[in-house]
Specification:
The complex is a heterodimer. Chain A is mainly beta. Chain A is built from no helices and 12 strands. In chain A, the strands form 3 sheets. In chain A, strands 2, 5, 6, 10, 11 and 12 form a 6-stranded mixed beta sheet that branches. A 4-stranded antiparallel beta sheet of chain A has the order 3-9-8-7, with no helix packed on it. In chain A, strands 1-4 form a two-stranded antiparallel sheet. In chain A, about 35% of the residues are buried. Chain B is mostly beta strands. Helices cover about 0% and strands about 55% of the residues of chain B. Chain B contains no helices and 11 strands. Chains A and B meet through β5 and β11 of A and β4, β5, β9 and β10 of B.
Amino acid sequence: AQSVSQHNHHVILSEAASLELGCNYSYGGTVNLFWYVQYPGQHLQLLLKYFSGDPLVKGIKGFEAEFIKSKFSFNLRKPSVQWSDTAEYFCAVNAGGGGNKLTFGTGTQLKVEL
Amino acid sequence: GAVVSQHPSRVICKSGTSVKIECRSLDFQATTMFWYRQFPKQSLMLMATSNEGSKATYEQGVEKDKFLINHASLTLSTLTVTSAHPEDSSFYICSAPREDYGYTFGSGTRLTVV
């Protein structure tokens, strides 16, 4: 069975600081990887996804993530965070192929202070 | 595009009663719908997968008779929590897979059983 670990449960940063959220997964086969963001009171939104190809994926709002297969990792990064990035971030993985169930990490609550 | 509408957003019910949660795909046909449950400060846990016109597939440990799932049409999937108890209080989220967008999520239903 696949599993996902997010090591940072709560992160507090000042505006303009750089962000890196860790995500590691456990699954022996081909995987698709996702990062979702959940703003307070809103539904999950896709930040970015990796299916294949260039392991450095760029998403919306200046976020990017790098798939490192040898480390089973898919860390999320942003060079300079904004107050509006305050939200909860979820890493998720599914077995390769479309339409398969997603397994989520425990989430990271990010707070950006002015 | 690719919107899933979930209702109600919040519901409070008495112990022993049943509650129905609906998820509608507004601009696409959802042959599959995933139902998740999220406890406070925890990750989204998959409860079951519904497929249009067939029986739902439940994850290990999820009671089929308690969480009734119906997917009678390509645009509607429902989850009914039967004989609800306080321990069923949680945040329930539906999600439909879309190959081009990954997955689309409903806005969630906050269930409180008193």
